[in-house]
Amino acid sequence: xxxxxxxxxxxxxxxxxxxxxxxxxxxxxxxxxxxxxxxxxxxxxxxxxxxxxxxxxxxxxxxxxxxxxxxxxxxxxxxxxxxxxxxxxxxxxx
Length: 94
Fold this sequence. Notes:
By secondary structure, this protein is α+β, with helices and mostly antiparallel strands. It has one domain. It contains two helices and three strands; from the N terminus they run H-E-E-H-E. The protein has helices at 9-15, 51-63; strands at 18-29, 32-46, 67-77. It has a three-stranded antiparallel sheet. Strand 1 (18-29) and strand 2 form a beta hairpin. The protein is elongated, with a radius of gyration of 20 Å.
């Protein structure tokens, strides 16, 4: 008798709309205003709302002295619900 399978939490996130997101943040530090610096970050988020990115940028505005110049976001959904089909188990392979 086969045991019940528990789906992978990462896979569940993908089905919920999460995908790989890359953010490139250009900013200036107060002590070197002529230098434009870069912070790059890759993470899972939901497009187009980007709640995790928005929380991070809110934190940056409150807690970091650097002023954000611009933010570039790239996102790739890894899987969509319509791409997944469940099939009936046919047999076992030993």
